[in-house]
Amino acid sequence: MSVGDYIELEDGRTGLVTQLNMRSTTLETFDGKDIVVPNEKFITSSFTNWTHKNTKQRYRVDFSVAYKTNVRQMVELVKAAVATHPQVISGEDIPFEERPDCEIDSFGDSGINMFVEFWMEGIDDGRNRVGGDLLLIILETLQNNGIEIPFPQREVRILKEE
Question: Per the domain annotation, does 153 fall within a domain?
Fold first, then answer.
């Protein structure tokens, strides 16, 4: 572990390593708070070092579309839109498996549940806000192309008393 690594502790707290000394390690959270962790914790507990080996990370953004959507066309529109974000890794020179990808996740009660997977350098930790940016990009892409985001639907039957 070294300064600049992004760490997730066993209890779910996360932060960027900003200081290492003999007794403790300081992690800065995305909202500017410092977590001081005794170094013993790194010996006795497991933790995830998200960026030690590779600063590239894969993320996923979920959304839904109406059942009447031409999914094949929509998938291409969304992949192209996501690729425009400056922090998303994309382009013809990037291996196919690392380019933005959009797929069906499941069939929901009100619509088709979709997801976009993408790679970026660094951590989408609130400071970068890539996931939030992509949700807005996806929303605008769907709206600009007349693609509906489904609302929950219920069927109500009125029974006649006899």
Answer: no
CB 80 within 8 A of CB 145: no
Confidence at residue 121, expressed as pLDDT on a 0 to 100 scale: 78
pLDDT higher than 70, residue 136: yes
Overall domain count for the chain: 2
17 in Cβ contact with 9 (< 8 Å): no
Same domain, 61 and 136: yes
Q: Which domain holds residue 89?
A: 56-144
Rounded to an integer, the average pLDDT of 50-70 is 84
Domain identity same for 33 and 60: no
Is there a single domain that holds both residue 68 and residue 44?
no
